[in-house]
Amino acid sequence: MFTNRYPRLEPVSPDGLATIERGWMRLVSELGVRFDHPEALRVLAEAGQRVEGDVVFFDPEWVLEMVAKAPSEFTLHARNGARDIRVGGDTMVFVPVQGPPFVRRGLERREAVLADFDDFCRLAQHLDDFDLAGGWPVEPNDVPLDSRHLDAVRSIFTLTDKPAGGHSISVAAAEDALAMARIVFGNRLDSEACIYTNINVNSPLVYDERMLDALMIYARARQPVLVVPFLLMGAMAPASTVAALAQQFAEGLTGIALMQAISPGCPAVLGSFLSTTDLKNGSPAFGGPESHFGLLASGQLARRYNLPWRAGGGALTTSPVPDAQAAYEGMNTMQAAFLAGANWVMHTGGWLEGGLVAGFEKLIVDLDIVRTLCAEFTPIDIDEAALAFGAHDEVRHGGHFLGAAHTMERFRDCFHRPLLATTDNFQRWTKDGALDAAARATGIYEGLLADYEPPSLDGAVRDELDAFVTRRRSELGD
Predict the structure, then answer these.
(1) b/e sequence 425-459, b meaning 16+ C-beta within 10 Å
(2) Pick from 226, 168, 202, 194: nearest CA to 345
(3) How far is residue 77's CA from residue 131's CA, in Å, rounded to a whole number?
(4) Which of 24, 95, 144, 317 could be stapled to 478 by a disulfide with Cβ–Cβ 3.0 to 4.6 Å?
(5) In Å, how far are 68, 223, 254 from 64, measured between CA atoms?
């Protein structure tokens, strides 16, 4: 975890915040939110909200009352207690790319398979920069659809000892993930946050049945849910950043309110995923100025409601390859997450092609970006020692500091050393193969995978996980 103690950048005035708040309140009370699930409708009706068909018209004050029940901070436990993470406050949690159906390794772009899923887990375990592998780094297309969640959760629990995520695609996926977490954590699951899931709103203003199934299953188990509207302005939201922000909070806050109505005090994370649509061709666009502002404003509003906040990026990009566009678009959204005080940064490394592709080289590019930002957002000591008067006294006028005692004492760690970027001159760079950043990244991730060592896991727990996967795969018809 990184502790971000820098002042937050808050571009929205108090009047502007009040305007956006009035906007989401009007949406939930006058237009309502559709919930495609009879149980969710029953819970909300019994809580006093007006239900007409499958649309719920909310009392905004009730929404705020429910949201206030969610903890502002919580601990998500790992099977290795040294890997526990704190979600909320000043902490930032970094998670690699989640969900793409395709992968890119070098020049090869193809469907993702379980071996790719496992390699992303290994990299997330091996690199301390990532606090967890998440729940679904890529789609493992070579295993049956109905049971692939079993392979995914088993990989996360066996290849990493960091906190784990479960899939939200079906009732079976949610319940099986919780059952596997109980194998690992035992009765701790009854009183501690031990596994999380991420759900997306079917924007605009719809919670579909599958997402609601997962939200309610996890809420009843008192396990954290990241509630994330998925807004592309011009497509799933109006072509207005302010309107999209109002919609984002209408969707996100009502989902968290439902969680609290089911299980008061259940941990929840308010999510944002706010970007634009290229209205010339209909394609999603990432890394632009609207996303940057949307992130800053989302963080400002999340603090208004005292909720942990998941940033909508991450190193997002529309580029199909890990090139200059991928780097500068990724940096733009990643930097905004730092400036806005994000607590949970999804897609920190590896996102390509608008989220269709998980790139191994791109993960290394993004890793260099996040390391640079962590260094930039770490306050430096400003004191008499930092003035280094003795170094000036030694070198005096017209000299150089390369061989000064002060430099010799500090040269190993006084400056940030990038993992990927090169400072070699042209001649040395050419002699070493004239490799660009993507080619260097290939060597780095392949070396990390070669050095990976699996974390220890009790043999009885491993056997029980394997037996559960075998039994459930048969029961699911796979």
Answers:
(1) eeeeeeeeeeeebbebbbebbeebeeeeeeeebee
(2) 226
(3) 11
(4) 144
(5) 6, 21, 9
Q: Which residues lie below 8 Å from residue 391, measured CB to CB, with a gap of 6+?
A: 401, 404, 405, 406, 407
Total count of domains within the chain: 1
What is the percent of the chain where pLDDT is above 70?
100
DSSP code string of 291-358: HHHHHHHHHHHHHHTT--EEES-SS----SSSSHHHHHHHHHHHHHHHHHT-SEETT-S-EEGGGTEE
- Tokens representing residue 96 in the block: 């690699």
- In the sheet that holds 102-105, the strands lie side by side as 108-111, 102-105, 357-359, 351-352
E-state strands within 46-137: 50-52, 55-57, 73-76, 85-88, 91-94, 102-105, 108-111
> Buried (b) or exposed (e) across 160-175, using 16+ Cβ within 10 A?
bbbbbbbbbbbebbbb
pLDDT digits 0-9 by tens, 354-384: 999 999 999 999 999 999 999 999 999 999 9
User: Does residue 81 sit within a domain?
Assistant: yes
97: in domain = yes
151 lies in which domain range? 2-10+66-376
CATH number at residue 355: 3.20.20.480
The answer to whether position 428 is within a domain reads: no
**What are the pLDDT digits (tens) for 87-114?**
999 999 999 999 999 999 999 999 999 9
- Euclidean distance between CA atoms 115 and 222, whole angstroms: 32
pLDDT per residue as tens digits for the range 224-263? 999 999 999 999 999 999 999 999 999 999 999 999 999 9
In a domain, 17, yes or no: no
Sign of CA dihedral 380, 381, 385, 386: positive
Alpha-carbon span 351 to 444, nearest angstrom: 17
- Packing angle of the helix pair 171-185, 209-220 (nearest 10 deg): 20
Closest by Cα among 308, 275, 326 to 437: 326
User: How far is 325 from 287, CA to CA, in rounded Å?
Assistant: 9
Residue 136's SS3 state is coil
With tokens 């406050």, the residue in question is: 89
Q: Among 456, 472, 33, 461, which Cα is nearest to 229's? A: 33
Handedness of CA 253, 277, 297, 91 (dihedral sign): positive
Gyration radius of the chain over CA positions: 23
Taking the C-alpha atoms of residue 287 and residue 157, their distance in angstroms, rounded to an integer, is: 33
